[in-house]
Each structure stands twice: as C-alpha cells, then as structure tokens.
Amino acid sequence: MLVSVVIPARNDAPMLATCLTALAEQTGLPAGIEVEIVVVDNGSSDATAQVAHDAGVRVITEPIAGIPRAASAGYDAACGELIARIDADSVCPPGWLARAIAIFAHDDELSVLTGTGEFYGASDLVHRIGKAWYLGGMYWSMTGYLGHPPIFGSNFVMRRAVWNELRDEVHRGPRTIHDDLDLSLHIKPWMTVRYDPDFVVKISARPFATFGGLRRSVSWVLPTLRNHWPDDSPWARRAARRRWERNDQDRHEAVA
C-alpha cells in the first residue's frame, strides 16, 4: 500500500528541511507500506525546491500563489491510497504516520482522520492563545456548524476516494480562504470524519506571533463560509444528512 504525504510550501526552506527530517524518521510502519512525499513548490523565491530535491522527495510546481491551489495540486499528483496533508512548518512525531495507517486499517468506513497541533516558537502566551482560542474555537464552533469535526489542514489524512469525489468541487482559486475549511464544507453526508486528539504534530506559532497574522487567519473564515452560502448552511447540511440517512436505511431494508 502506498501512502502519500502532501506538503504545500512557499519560501519555507528552513522549516521544510526540519519537516522532511521528521518524516524520514517515522517509525512503526507496517510491512508492505510505502510512503511518497510530495512537496508542492508554490512559486518560492528561496531554496524551498532545492531543500526538497536534496531530501530525495517528489517535487511538483504550482506557480500561481495560494494555499488552496497548491494543496489541490498536491492531492491531484499524489498516488497513494491514503493522502496525508501537513504544512512545511509541521513537525511530525515518529509514530505519526503509523497511527493514521492503523486507524484506517481498523475502520473501513472512515473517510478522513484529522488531528490537532502543539505550537512551537513565539511565547507561551501565544501558544496558549493559538491552542485555546484559535484551534479550540475552531473545533468547537465548526463542529456544530458542519455536523462533523472540521479538517485541520496542518494534520489530516483522507482516503483517495474522498479526493476523487471532491476534487472538481473544491474552491482552488481564491487565496483568502481556508482550504481545509473549504474541504470540510464539501464533505458529503455519507463521508465520515473523525477527530483524534492524540493525533498530534508540532506546528509553528508564526501565524499568531503578531496581531496582523492572527487577524488575517480569522478574517479568512467568513469568505470561506460565504462561498458555500446558503447551500451549505448548518440547517441545509442537517437536512441533507437526514435525507441520506433515510435513503440509506431504505436501501438496507430493501436488501434485508
């Protein structure tokens, strides 16, 4: 079985080097598992692409800047049955990938596994604000809105079948949206998203190190939701899930 790890990167050479070193040190992978790492160079002007080449990983180029476009290009290029996504500043612990593979192996109906992050860099105060207010607030508010846990772009794994079904629907063009929230909004009623609080990577606190960075991250939420309004409003999503559950029950009764 092949597992792909997609990493969008733009001018992230030093952090990418650390990220790739951590991936090279993954342990506990089952026999027969092969891993490909796909770095998407999103128009970098530094040594990002060279760092990836030096590490011996696969490099593709997406010259038009924007995380949604770069991430989607990486998923398109990935060959694995499972497609993992982290960022260039993510640092994965040794058992990270093995944990994800084991969870999918024991749950044939699981579509997406998403985890969380522990911040590094900046101050302890910034770490607490990022974890409690930004990550905590995101999971609390968006789980109710979506009807399932939100996908965390710095740390998730999905089946290839999920991307094959959603690849033509996701918003690739806009730069000022959250690609992971956009993907979350495209999740179908028959897809299952699981949040595992023990599925953790280290992530840089740089987006929250300044008020401007924090404001930018928060300001992208509304445009992301607006792209899906009103078709993916909370009540529309609940109605769609109820319809699917009724139809699914009818199918099971017909078979029985």
Structure explained in plain terms:
The protein is of the alpha/beta class. The chain has one domain (2-255): Alpha-Beta Complex (Spore Coat Polysaccharide Biosynthesis Protein SpsA, Chain A). Helix content is 45%, strand content 20%. The protein has helices spanning 13-24, 48-54, 67-77, 96-105, 124-146, 160-166, 179-186, 211-219, 221-226, 234-255; strands at 2-9, 34-41, 58-61, 82-86, 112-120, 155-159, 193-204. Strands 3-2-1-4-6-5-7 form a seven-stranded mixed beta sheet, sandwiched between helices. The protein starts with a strand and ends with a helix.
Query: From the coordinates shown, what is the CATH architecture?
Result: Alpha-Beta Complex
Total helices: the number is 10
Please compute the radius of gyration using only Cα atoms: 18 Å
Helix coverage percent of residues?
Answer: 40-55%
Subunit arrangement of the protein: single chain
